[in-house]
Amino acid sequence: MPETTTPDPRRWKALIFIALAQLMVVLDATIVNIALPSAQTDLGISDGNRQWVITAYALAFGGLLLFGGRLADLWGRKKTFVIGLIGFAVASALGGAAVNLGMLLGARALQGVFGALLAPAALSLLSVMFTEAQERAKAFGVFGAIAGAGGGVGLILGGVFTEYLNWRWTFFVNIPFAVVAAAGAIAVIHEPAGSRNPSKLDIPGVVLSTLGLVSLVYGFTRAESDGWTSGSTIAMFVAAVVLLAAFVVVEYRVKAPLLPLRVLTERNRAGVYLSLGLAAIAMFGLFLFLTYYLQVVKGYKPVTTGLAFLPMIATMIAGSTQIGARLMTRVAPRWLMGPGFLLAGVGMLLLTQIDLGTSYVTGILPGLVVMGLGMGTAFMPAMSLATHGIQPRDAGVASAMVNTSQQVGGAIGTALLNTIAASATTAYATSHVAGAKSVELLKLQSMVHGYSTAIWWAVGILALSALIAFLAINTGHQGGHTVASGDGEGVEAADSVPVMVH
């Protein structure tokens, strides 16, 4: 393969459509949250079944991402990207037209299936289209900002549609996104020659990884509803461990693995996957608690709740495009990711102080602004480093691992931190019931105590994420011709492929 390639003249136009598709997929993880109470009433969904509207998407998306990433390597990223967009639009139309719970759950699962095709194809297209360091930094700055801020955008749009239109528009909004992105992709995206992986599909790997990841995500979902020691929860976790262990054994032995272990054994990529997964645990949990705090405790309307997250989105975009992208070619990634996660932790630390009378301007806004700035700064180099030194034939599956770590982290965060919050709420209510002035007041005080306790845990998780970024990631800055200095595998790959070097 030649050492240099001519950059695609339409790559910046392509970035617009890739970013649009990524925004659609990321915001869909949260846009339905605010609309869920309305959908529940409209379709007569029971309290016990409502969580499945969220879980159906997470299970299909998280479980099939590795499969989607490998299909992108096999079929070609552009084809996979367009198929994913069209399928996502059809699934969204079905969701918006749902007449009962079964139809809604089927549509959400279908969205997850096509999202699992779309997301890794989008990221791997960027990694093979932007090969010059400065340009790569700018492109991943945009992509990282959208990946980080999309969840918050989903909360805002969910609030606007629910309050001014109806819950069905949280599905229908995806159709114009998908149509524009697909038309643009067909017109301007040109995938570099020789970047496909023509090997056969690893069917045992697909089955074991999908079932293993679904069992893991479902186990945390059961823990939230049934408790950590219930038989169904333990059975799911045991199944996940057995299936994922079998997956690793199969990948070690087959000729054309679904997830080549070389993707995971390079320390920089492994550090990114782990630190991003932990950050997702903290972040998704916080979104959930703040949404409930603002609506239930402070009495905000859905649209006001969504708009309350706007400053965090603004600083996240600023951190990604102005700090991360500008410094990425001058500073080693660990010095952006580590301090970024720590800064986000400081923002969350400010939010542990919430109580019944906390003012938005003085008590919540500073925490959101600081957290957004930190997350944006950390996300940007992380997204780029996820395909650092990777061979083009593995770009799809390496990209899928980033999305997998975020999706699985998000599902774990929601369940884990919810359980911690519920336990703290119950303990507070029990210990303060004797001196309570009113049952309603005690209920709100207990809820806020639960949220605050869970956010403390999120602070600790972000500190761990920062520590992993400092210790595991040892590559130099992503400019000039500095490449990985880990176990040698990253160096060899980066030297042989014009992805990270001039």
UniProtKB/TrEMBL annotation:
Q: Which UniProt keywords apply?
A: Antibiotic resistance, Cell membrane, Membrane, Transmembrane, Transmembrane helix, Transport
Q: Where in the cell is it found?
A: Cell membrane
Is Cell membrane a UniProt keyword of this protein?
A: yes
**What are the GO cellular component annotations?**
plasma membrane
Alphabetical GO biological process terms: response to antibiotic
Q: Name one Pfam family in it.
A: MFS_1
Name-wise, this protein is: EmrB/QacA subfamily drug resistance transporter
